[in-house]
Amino acid sequence: ITQPAPMTLQAGTGGTICAGGSIALNGTAGGSYTTVSWTGGTGTFSPPGSLSTVYTSGLGDNGNITLTITLTDACGNTVTDNVNVTVNPLPVAQLVAGGPTALCPGDSVLLTASGGTTYAWSTGATTASVYASTAGNYSVVVSNSCGNDTVAISVTTLPGANALITPSGPT
Predict the structure, then answer these.
(1) Cβ distance 37 to 70 under 8 Å?
(2) Which DSSP state fits 113?
(3) Tens digits of per-residue pLDDT, 77-110?
C-alpha cells in the first residue's frame, strides 16, 4: 500500500495595508488535501477556500494581525501556517482649542491638531499647533500614510469696550 504524500503548507508573505484595504495572499501546498481555509482577523477572504485569496481588513483590524491558512485531508488531518499583516489606521483629525475661541482684542488662542503624522493648516503652517489671534475659520488637513482628514474651528473676536467720557464741567 502506498501512503499518500504528507501535506505541506506555506502561508506565504504578508505585508502592510491601510484600514479597509486589501492584500493578496498566496499560500503554497503539497501532498494530498481536500480543503483549504483561511481564518483570522475581522475582515473577509475572497475566495475563502483557495490557496490564493485576497484579504480585506475589517473594522476590528488594527496593528499586527495573524491570518491562518489550514489544509485538511480526507481523514480530517490538518496542517496550518500563519502570515502576519499590519493594518495601519486611517487618520482621524481632531482639533482642540487651548482656551476660549471668542477672543478679546489683542488675545490669541492655541489650536492643536492631532490624529496624523503631518499637518497642513489653512494659515500655511505645517506644525501640529498654531496660534489664532484674528477672527476666522481655521482648518487643518491631518495626514498619515493611509490618507488624510480635515477638521475646522471658528474663532471670533469680541467687541472691545467703548469708553465714553462725559465731562461734568467746562473743558
Answers:
(1) yes
(2) E
(3) 999 999 999 999 999 999 999 999 999 988 999 9
Cα separation of the two ends of the chain:
126
Cβ atoms of 142 and 150 closer than 8 Å: yes
What's the mean pLDDT in 141-170? 86
DSSP state letters, 20-85: T-EEEEE-EEES--SEEEEE-SSSEEESTTSSEEEEE--TT--EEEEEEEEEE-TTS-EEEEEEEE
Quick one: cell of 112?
A: 492643536
Q: What pLDDT, on the 0 to 100 scale, is given for residue 141?
A: 98
Contact (CB, 8 A) for 61 and 19:
yes
Name the one residue in this structure whose C-alpha cell is 476666522.
136
| pLDDT for residue 170 | 76
